[in-house]
Amino acid sequence: MIRAVFFDFDGVVMDSMHLKLESYCYAFEGEGFDPAEVNRIQTREAGISRHRLLGILYEELKGAPLPPALFEAALARFNRHDDESRARMEFVPGTEVFLDKVAARYYTAVVTGTPQDVIERTVAHFGLGPYFDEVRGSPKIKVDHLLELMQGRGLQAEECLYIGDAVKDQEAADACGMPFVGLDRGDAPFAVERAWAVVRSLAELEPRLGL
Predict the structure, then answer these.
(1) 47 and 148 housed in the same domain
(2) Does a structural domain hold residue 210?
(3) In this predicted model, what pLDDT tens digit does every residue of 195-207 receive, in sequence order?
(4) What CA–CA distances, in Å, run from 144 to 19, 104, 117, 150, 166?
């Protein structure tokens, strides 16, 4: 029986991945990076922290490690653009109604690669606090958060779901032995055959969760 539902945030709760792409491109403005290549890497690595992804992007597209001074400048530019983009975020269709229903019945938490202070501001900005019992972000990785939350609530892995839209989300769920729900926005980058469910909208989960 499912007792807890954990959510990735960007791309699952908020339709914000295109805004993150803009922020990564802005972070490295002047480096000549092809936005399509930035998008390819961002999609492949979705779910990890911006601190790690900035280094991966630069090294893969430039062929050299990201210098510390440039990292600090790129991170500052990313953070500024990301903060300014918050008001442009919109809910993933079907998710707001689902959250209202699931929060009334299940233990719920956000588990994201977004920095803790940033995800807390975003949750507050959209008034999402009542939907979540916990909100967890980086620098801790998703696996550590999931394990801590399960232990803290006395939950078994099979009593939980982790809803994500990326390979890294599925890997985190798998590492915890937790059922994974893949939100397919048209590309389904995760392993469909290993997912507990694959849905186009979280509304499709409502019957399975008795909502």
Answers:
(1) no
(2) no
(3) 999 999 999 999 9
(4) 27, 26, 18, 10, 18
